[in-house]
Amino acid sequence: xxxxxERLASHPxxxxxxxxxxxxxxxxxxxxxxxxxxxILCLFDDRQRxxxxxxxxxxxxxxxxxxxxxxxxxxxxxRVAGPWQPEQGHRFNSAKLLVxxxxxxxxxEVGQExxxxxxxxxxxxxxxxxxxPKSVVIADDFDWQGDAPLRTPWGETVIYxxxxxxxxxLHPEIPAPLRxxxxxxxxxxxxxxxxxxxxxxxxxxxxxxxxDEPRLQARGLRNxxxxxxxxxxxxxxxxxxxxxxxxxxxxxxxALHQAGIEVIxxxxxxxxxxxxxxxxxxxxxxxxxxxxxxxxxxxxxANWTGCGNTLNLSHPAVIDWTLDCLRFWVxxxxxxxxxxDLAPVLGRTPAFDAAAxxxxxxxxxPLLSTCKLIAEPWDIGPEGYRLGQFPAPxxxxxxxxxxxxRRFWLCDDAGCGELANRLSAxxxxxxxxxxxxxxxxxxxxxxxxxxxxxxxxxxxxNEANGEENRDGHDANYSGNQxxxxxxxxxxxxxxxxxxxxxxxxxxxxxxxxxxxLAGDELGHSQQGNNNAYCQDNPTTWLHWQEADSALQAFxxxxxxxxxxxxxxxxxxxxQEGDGNVEWLNGRGTPMTRDDxxxxxxxxxxxxxxxxxxxxxxxxxxxxxxxxxxxxxxVTSDDGEPGTILLAVWHGAAHxxxxxxxx
Length: 662
Prior knowledge:
By secondary structure, this protein is α/β, with parallel strands linked by helices. Among the domains are: 5-136, Immunoglobulins (Immunoglobulin-like, Sandwich); 581-661, Immunoglobulin-like (Sandwich). It contains 15 helices and 28 strands. The termini are far apart. 53% of the residues are buried. The mean pLDDT is 96.
């Protein structure tokens, strides 16, 4: 509860650290703003009464104050006064209550109220305090019970990309009040499943506090994926079973760590929910618009993200803020790594530079440099496709791997040479001194078709998104095996299963770091929607009671085999004659130039002398002579484990089989 106004006292406090920090006898508040003329701290009690306290202490561009007597749970915000000069990048508006850029908890939702909008080119004077989200002071007293970073080596890492709600919302064995929440992630049922599957890292779609875009609210839809944040170090309350999102996330991470599973967060440091010039004023725009965002002529936002604005991560203070946010997740939530959405923005100066200040700061940071850092290596700005160009210690999502495997198995327009290149960690893109694990190998992700939809639809079906099916990718390299949609004759369904197994096999047994989309191993479908960002409903939630148990068992077996093959776990580039890999033709002899360039798409890959992947990329069945040795099938076309030693494999069209040496 906020003390009565007449009992409030304050003194300058300290300029470190950023944000609001409870010190036992009160709270220290620090806010960066280089161009503000006045900063006012606004405290709110349980009745939403507002107390305003001007910050008179300023050290450099940091405004700060200490208020005795305040405790965790205190709601607050800022009003920041300064010039209204949009053409110069200044959009100060003290009528708008602002969320602390370093808030650790936020309550309230961003609605469609007109008061939230600061004005496009003319300042809007409506006060937003009654409808604006509020920052909340938190305590830092969680008992981690000795939890420490797992530091799973990159070569041993298998990533599982999932959505907090979608993963557990329909799970029948998780108590109903917990489904779709942080607590469900750490529930024994979910942990046991992840362990059986064999993944080592759970990568969560964004959990930082985000807003629903106005256009979605107008259609009665919600932002599901979470790529529209405005408080980048505050866990979203949408996924909390109770009133303390951070504590619930901490409990989940602790439980996952105890099970040997790392947690990676998808983070969005490229744009915010303040959107274009006509968007809401929620935080950074009102704190210091000119510093936080890139601008073009006449003060318009540079829109290199497709979301209306772009964060200026070359500004020293914005770099400090970014590092502070990331350190919070690591220090206070024990997060093991980050996947950066539209990551070229991190290196824009404004042209992309692999030696950009933020990259250097991350590499030099003693804490963050030890985390797993993953880049989505493209944005929509000038020369925004940067696959293979990020500096160490970054790994990168490899869409060339994704498209190469899809084209080989589903389109018949990629040969064995292209496939071998992708299965070798795309060495043409990721060269030493970077390691093979820098290639994050994927065939599907949250953005695009699921695996089942990939083999069931030739075309996207995004009508439910309300954009007349114009949104989403058109170049999917998918293949429906002759029938559009999930319903198909048994022969078509079998052909689809063979291709799903082939795609999973080559994903999970390729050099590099595999990433599996949650639900692919269960046969999950989004009904052909390849851009389900606004479908917070059973379209995207995993239907556990309808799971394909055979496909799940198949996937688990392949993951377990991967862990036993040094050529895949060693994270060392394969060299000729090192015993890691042998490329063989359908006759079980070494591939020749003619085999690579003119032969059928038949390939056998022996890994570490103990694992054998046999691939028939042709549209007709074929018999493969296995190399010398006693080979036991690990997987077969029907998903059942093999029990008979084989010397010849009769491969179905577009099929893969895996063997291990007895």
